[in-house]
Amino acid sequence: MKIFTTFDSMEKLNEACALSIGVFDGIHLGHQRIIKQLHKKAGKGCKGIVTFDKRPASYFNPLGEALPIMTLEHRLSLLEKYGLDFALVLCFDHTIADLSFESFLQKIMDKAPIKNLILGENASFGKERGGNETTLPSFAHKHAFNLTFLKKSLMQNNVISSTLARNLVTDGNLKKLKKILGRRYTLFTPNFSPKELTKKGKWHTFQLCFENLTALPSGTYTISIENGYVSLPGFALLTTESSLSPKRYVVDVFFGSGTLQQGPLTLLFINQTPPKAQNHPLKQFEHSLSSSLLLQTSMKNITTKE
């Protein structure tokens, strides 16, 4: 997937594309429906998204806006896995905020002619949210592209949204979160280095820190560590340092055996351990988790993905 960070840096496409515009925070099932429609409309043609480095609401209300579910690097990594050809990632600042929706779309079309524009229900963009379900149809007709607004996805009468996903993260409801994401909740770092590993008894351990990210409740979680073609079972100790600015989300990761490589690394969160296992030290964790098939596997071998 090609990534561009400004209108000017974007390569000019030779064919009209299927496009969507949005933050895609969490990339939940609603977002995935949009991506599937991009594939359907584009066929073998070009498909991409225009997104932003942060939620526009955080620009207009920096103190009151909720924290994102995932980092920008994580979003882009997942979007690439979903088979998009390009992503235009714009820094949401006063320049972007002051663009009318017509000017915003024209800047895109100067580089990427649009054949299909696919948006979520009630989506809006441009200055004062001028581009919406009322104004966009006439613009699409004038510029001869197809416009689709997909209805919101529902699960048990709840609208699947980034807000719902964010609340489930905060509540630590990994089961429901998995349902609306269509995958397990994950944390991601693009540049893990084996040099970060240390040894505590029989455990290999490393620490990841995230700033200004929606956090799971502090506690201990069974996880799977995904790194290249290797998957290692282990567990993670999560703590949040909300008194600091920016807020920090600290994850101490432990696993029994195996080798990690330089490069992208993902933590898949499986479940939270019982309260009685929440107190350190490591021996207590080992005892509490010894009955877990996951941890037993981690002490014996490395599961290699096919």
TrEMBL record:
Name this polypeptide is given: FAD synthase
NCBIfam families attached to this UniProt entry: cyt_tran_rel
Catalytic activity field: FMN + ATP + H(+) = FAD + diphosphate
Broad enzyme group: transferase
One BP term from GO: FAD biosynthetic process
Keyword ATP-binding part of the UniProt annotation: yes
A molecular function GO annotation: FMN adenylyltransferase activity
Pathway terms, separated by semicolons: Cofactor biosynthesis; FAD biosynthesis; FAD from FMN: step 1/1
FAD synthetase domain ranges (all copies): 12-163
Keyword tRNA-binding among UniProt keywords: no
One of the Pfam families matching this protein, by short name: FAD_syn
Key words of the record: ATP-binding, FAD, Flavoprotein, FMN, Nucleotide-binding, Nucleotidyltransferase, Transferase
The enzyme's E.C. designation: 2.7.7.2
UniProt similarity note: Belongs to the RibF family.
